[in-house]
């Protein structure tokens, strides 16, 4: 699973608003301590009975509250097979279903079975026998269905239960989390067809335990079942579910019944179905069907988005030594999805934004869309083929999927691209770690949804990378092969992963798994060095709070450069304060700690300007170049530094060029003309659109300088990202010459440019653009509505005469109150908040919106944004 847009936003807001004001750098003692301490309660005592005073414990601001223990679900009954026969009532948003479950006691004899079934109308429950079905008695509390069997059954006996029911997901309480914004399981999108710009669709989302909102099951990850789903739908719709389409029959009433069957067992939360007017684009891998389900208007670009899937399947099959094991592989993009993507076995679901791109937009695609695709595919080994037995062990699913993004980038695009993935992922974890730090494997949490965080994903992926570096590539992938082959189609916990690595390597790796998987936090290091008498003294201090985090054992490589010769030294840090002596014939030009960039840590490394310049010019990786660029930004006025930045504008890796272009914003040094000339060259000719766009943005930072001709040329660029950057630059420095170009662009602009155009007109538009804003609003993606369009519209509205604002305010209020997407409601709320500063009457409206919002995540965000 990948985060939804709102989920990622919620995590960011929690980190920035939820953390104490002083928590700016996690490796500073003042930043990691809360303002209060915990003490034992004082009691009066006579001098003869007094004990030693209790030492105060300073509690870090990131320490989460104590939560209840969450053991793995006890297995009383195994669900072996599920057969569903379902049809849909679009107007009532209900599913009419019959479930035939094949069950068996797990070990102990049973005379009843307890199923999860949320918010159903139960019509009847029958035991299916060879001669005649038996009616069974049951108890039902709208959450659990307790069925009384006709006798005791032993673990060697299977039995079948048939349940007729109606699922009513819209009548369930609205709940969700940062990663999965709703948990009602079954979703009807535009069911009455009243939204003209949105198709009618039905889709499901099962993780964590929401599939029991639409079929009865034991909704736990340590169950495994085969399945068959018969869907009766109107003839014009396509269907999709797990496994293969084994039959499709036209019915006399104009409907059609499709039967999908998955013969390999998977956890109940991985079951899915989807219905809608989809175009199906076909591909193949080793004779297995690979298909992409998209809205018809995206049929021509589907392969540009998903087309690397067969290559990914081949790469992982060979790398793991386990061929893709499932019957087929389909990927479907749906509207209003409640998460970023979901790894349903053989039928992955994505939010619509992954395909909502024109050919011009695809030129700008960075690794984000591809990383989501590879993430969900890798789950078909880690998560689907082998499944974590409990939500406490979720990193056994998500950490591997996160690390697959690194593996694919490394394979397809090289080491620098992989390092960029690593850098972004580590940054996201460290950002979250400012406000909370949990063990990766957590047996205590308030809700299983809490497990879907930057720890389970980003931290876990970086831990796997360190494990790979610790044991070596051959042992790493051999261990993964052993883990997968030994535990295929079963549920596992952390010890089984550790044992697989120990069996292959012959090493005791408890120390690694304990400190990285079972302890909270991460190393916070200060690294300094000095030179004297032919020895480098390298001092490493672990500054993390050792009351709540371990003192880490850190095998690491330090590289020294003497006479332009690099020497690698392997050291093992084991103490809070440790000094290592490294030989050197003369003072080194550079001493680089963790030169491989593998460590998950917050590192403060003391390097001089000369050392950083040397590091850039002798860098072995993107990470070393990027670090030099970032750390030398404050010293741009120095000629050596500005010369390094100009050199970086010609680097072979685009992200280095982009970092340099961004670093040169507002440059005020003596090489001003040369820098501006270089940025203009990059803006016009760099082969990567992200770099051209960064150069344009940097040019726009130079106040009172005219680069209008550069921006005008950029308006004709082949990349929408570059055109958008030019529009944003012209918004701050409009030119008469570009106005005609922009007005022409406005009439034919695709959805991806509407945000930049809205920003331009927010600062430079007039009453004549009012109807343009209202007319194009329906074409803007939900994500872009939140990111820019609605906020720009609010700023534009403040420039309009008050008498002209009513329609716009009504539209924003309607979006804030009733739009189906949470991020759009949030964006509209923020837009109204912007206007409230000049229109105090809107404060009452905002208060009413807050009061009536049912989504708990949005309520929290509204509070944070007040």
Automatic annotation (TrEMBL):
Swiss-Prot/TrEMBL keywords: Aminopeptidase, Hydrolase, Metal-binding, Metalloprotease, Protease, Signal, Zinc
Top class in the EC scheme: hydrolase
EC number: 3.4.11.2
N-terminal signal peptide: 1-21
Cofactor(s) this protein cannot do without: Zn(2+)
One function term, GO molecular function aspect: zinc ion binding
Ranges where the Aminopeptidase N-like N-terminal domain occurs: 83-270
Transmembrane segments: none
Gene3D superfamilies cross-referenced by the UniProt entry: Leucine-rich Repeat Variant, Neutral Protease Domain 2, tricorn interacting facor f3 domain
Reaction(s) the record says it catalyses: Release of an N-terminal amino acid, Xaa-|-Yaa- from a peptide, amide or arylamide. Xaa is preferably Ala, but may be most amino acids including Pro (slow action). When a terminal hydrophobic residue is followed by a prolyl residue, the two may be released as an intact Xaa-Pro dipeptide
SUPFAM superfamilies for this protein: ARM repeat, Leukotriene A4 hydrolase N-terminal domain, Metalloproteases ('zincins'), catalytic domain
Pfam family, one: HEAT_2
Gene Ontology terms: biological process: peptide catabolic process; proteolysis
Domain Peptidase M1 membrane alanine aminopeptidase: 308-516
GO CC entries: cytoplasm; extracellular space; membrane
Similarity comment: family membership: Belongs to the peptidase M1 family.
Name of the protein: Aminopeptidase N
